[in-house]
Specification:
- This is B box-type domain-containing protein.
- The protein is 71% helix and 4% strand.
- The chain is mainly α.
- It folds into 3 domains: 121 residues; 44 residues, no CATH class; 145 residues.
- It has a 3-stranded antiparallel sheet. Strands 5-4-6 form a 3-stranded antiparallel sheet.
- The longest helix is centred in the first third of the chain and has 73 residues.
């Protein structure tokens, strides 16, 4: 197909076709253009270079296929729900009709029984109890009224279920396939708000002094050689991209860049939040352990002071004022060692054990602080490396 387009000749000027109109209202003669035709048609928004036109058609075909797939899927889901509701209505109506029929049959049986009872009782009515006729009549009226109320309620329920407005909404939800199939009318012709006329750029080809209408996006091309006018397109066989297409590509590039920058911004905020959290954790852990250790050390000192002072206060007592048991305890202590080294060592070991326990608590707490600080610092360092990468990425973007 590409060969057919490249070999096609303009019917008016008999020159090679370099552009195609995507306006479906055009006939064969007015659809394909050479460079001379383009000079006359420069503001026709439906005209694109052949390469650009082919790219747009490929894009529109893909979009159309996706639209029809989504349309079909949506309509199938609506119809399935419609079918489920109709089946539910069918079952509900069948149940209601069965209830009505059962009520009628019960009323028939009741009336038959009442009639038999009346016929039996009426035989025993005389001048002394003829008022029973009126009582029977009132009873019949009450029972008939109850029957009518029950039937009316059931029929009203059925009528409310038969209101089809709630089911017609499903038809409204069905997408119009015909409207979807005429998508190309708006897709092929750019809207006024997106259209930028070539003269609006106020840029002219230095060689031909003609407005720039296309660009060469080949990455190997020198930047100053990327602009092209009508005559540049005619003289060169390289593929050019029209102004409209370039603007579309630029918008997509800006959207991608914006998304990337917002992602970087969010990640940076998350990293800063992580660092602050870790610093707060270091501070809170250190402060908590500091308070716990301070309290434990104070309690230990109070214990030592109280215990030692109690023993010292008990010294120097007059033996004459002591009990026999206390005197025997004192003598027993003296008998164990003339210098009392063993007794003193026992006392020292007791307090040394208490001190070792408190020292272990201090050591464990310090290790906990060190462990917490190390973990937090490692996480902060990892976050800082990510932040530096983000900063480099932002620098590249700008």
């Amino acid at each position: 197909m590409d060969n057919q387009i490249s070999n096609r000749k303009c019917q008016q000027h008999d020159e090679n076709v370099i552009a195609t109109s995507l306006n479906l209202q055009c006939d064969e003669q007015n659809r394909y253009f050479c460079s001379k035709c383009l000079v006359l048609k420069i503001n026709d928004r439906a005209i694109h270079t052949n390469t650009d036109a082919q790219e747009r058609i490929i894009t529109m075909k893909s979009e159309f296929e996706l639209k029809t797939q989504n349309l079909t899927k949506q309509n199938i889901e609506v119809l399935k729900q419609f079918s489920e509701n109709i089946l539910a209505l069918k079952n509900l109506l069948a149940t209601t009709l069965d209830e009505i029929n059962s009520t009628i049959e019960n009323e028939i049986k009741r009336l038959q029984n009442v009639q038999k009872q009346i016929e039996e009782n009426i035989k025993f009515i005389d001048i002394y109890n003829f008022d029973k006729i009126e009582e029977a009549q009132k009873l019949l009226e009450q029972q008939f009224s109850s029957f009518r109320t029950a039937i009316n309620s059931q029929i009203t329920k059925m009528e409310s279920n038969l209101k089809m407005d709630s089911y017609l909404k499903y038809l409204d939800e069905l997408k119009d396939e015909v409207q979807a199939l005429i998508w190309y009318k708006s897709e092929l012709e750019p809207s006024d708000e997106n259209f930028i006329a070539t003269p609006g750029l106020k840029i002219f080809c230095q060689k031909h002094k003609t407005e720039i209408i296309a660009f060469d996006l080949n990455p190997q091309r020198a930047k100053e050689n990327r602009l092209a006018c009508i005559y540049c397109i005619e003289q060169n066989t390289i593929p050019y991209t029209s102004l409209i297409r370039v603007i579309e590509k630029w918008k997509k590039y800006e959207e991608l860049k914006k998304s990337k920058l917002l992602s970087i911004q969010q990640r940076h905020q998350e990293n800063q939040s992580t660092i602050i959290q870790q610093l707060d954790l270091i501070h809170s852990t250190s402060q908590q352990k500091n308070e716990e250790l301070t309290q434990s050390l104070k309690e230990f000192c109070n214990f030592i002071d109280g215990s030692v002072n109690k023993i010292i206060r008990s010294m120097g007592r007059n033996w004459a004022n002591q009990s026999q048991k206390e005197i025997l305890d004192n003598v027993d202590v003296l008998s164990k060692s003339i210098y009392n080294d063993e007794v003193i060592l026992t006392e020292d070991n007791y307090y040394q054990k208490e001190e070792n326990d408190i020292n272990k608590l201090v050591s464990d707490s310090i290790e906990k602080i060190k462990e917490t600080c190390l973990q937090c610092c490692l996480k902060i360092q990892s976050t800082i490396r990510v932040t530096n990468n983000l900063r480099d990425s932002i620098t590249q973007q700008t």
